[in-house]
Amino acid sequence: MNSYRIAVVGATGAVGQEILRTLERRNFPVSLLKPLASSRSVGKSVEFNGAKVQIEELRASAFEGIDFALFSAGATRSREYAEACKKAGAVMIDNSSAFRMKDDVPLVVPEINPGDLKKHHGIISVPNCSAIILGVPLWPLHQAAGIERIIVSTYQSASGAGAQAMAELESQARAHATGQPIKREIFPHQIAFNVFSHNTAIAENGYNEEENKVIEETRKIFHEPNLPIVATCIRVPVLRAHSESIVIETKRDLSPEEAREILSKAPGVKVVDSREKNHFPMPLEASGQHDVLVGRIRRDLSHPRGLALFVSGDQLLKGAAWNAVQIMEYLVGKS
């Protein structure tokens, strides 16, 4: 098997660290690993396959000789270095929102639309984490019964805002337990023991940026530009893994039993649906898993062809790092 020269941009961040661990777990054939970060991190190192690898400064020349560059450093950095990456001949797999809605950039969830990878021109986008976690279980149901409408409410963990946000949740919880003042630095509101609307700007249509991403990106991934979707995105005091309450309306009747059977065979999905034990998807159990957990599969009693379900998925893995590595595996023929 061939081996590949990999650059990880944002190697010190939460997603960057998960990319390194995922490459290790998958035994991806890496001949050269180049961790890239800002000048503040130069001189530090990351661990990879039992060895310490020195972090290099992110600059245009860093992509020379690289086969794949996995970006997790935000949209600004992705836009800044995209041309240098392409010029060097490296395929850019980008976790940011920079290019997701560009017509010539594939937006790929391998369980749904791997064929779109054939259309890339040097850049491939990883979708928004909530859109991925929504799409993986809904795609096989859409293929079976044709989804006509999606209503989704998300319960998004601190991990979606990065390592510092996770630390803020922990520090606020400790402060609350000891009667100390609670400090806010990352989130606009207290995250410990609280829920609030997703901390992105509200657009003219009344939806915040996260909600619009879920709507627009799901349509692009599904190749359904007019699919009706309503999304409500909420931050919750959970460290890791997003959850979603989903209601779908389908063209033909889809019973809970048939849906459960379809999902039990679907790639990237694990059914957790025990009514007897009242055991359903939880972020604690989804954390660290590649699969999206799906349960609470039941009829929507308000609609003759409605189905309701609840899902949990690891935002750092399937919502980001694992999806990126999975794309790379498809490109090299490892999947």
How are the SSEs placed, and which strands pair?
Blueprint (H helix, E strand, L loop, with lengths): L3 E6 L4 H12 L4 E8 L7 E4 L2 E4 L1 E2 L10 E4 L3 H13 L3 E4 L28 E3 L3 H17 L1 E10 L6 H16 L17 E2 L11 H14 L6 E7 L6 E9 L5 H9 L4 E3 L11 H4 L5 E8 L6 E8 L3 H16 L3
Parallel strand pairs: 1-2, 1-6, 2-5, 6-7, 7-8, 9-11, 13-14
Antiparallel strand pairs: 3-4, 9-12, 10-11, 12-15, 14-15
Helix pairs in contact: 1-8, 3-5
In words, what does this structure look like?
There is one protein chain. This protein is an alpha/beta fold. It folds into 2 domains: 4-127 and 320-332, Rossmann fold (3-Layer(aba) Sandwich), CATH 3.40.50.720; 131-315, Dihydrodipicolinate Reductase, domain 2 (2-Layer Sandwich), CATH 3.30.360. The chain has helices at residues 14-25, 75-87, 129-145, 163-178, 209-222, 256-264, 283-286, 317-332; strands spanning 4-9, 30-37, 45-48, 51-54, 56-57, 68-71, 91-94, 123-125, 147-156, 196-197, 229-235, 242-250, 269-271, 292-299, 306-313. The chain has a 7-stranded mixed sheet with strand order 10-11-9-12-15-14-13. Strands 5-2-1-6-7-8 form a 6-stranded parallel sheet, with helices on both faces. β14 and β15 form a beta hairpin. The longest helix has 17 residues, at 129-145. The radius of gyration is 20 Å and the shape is globular.
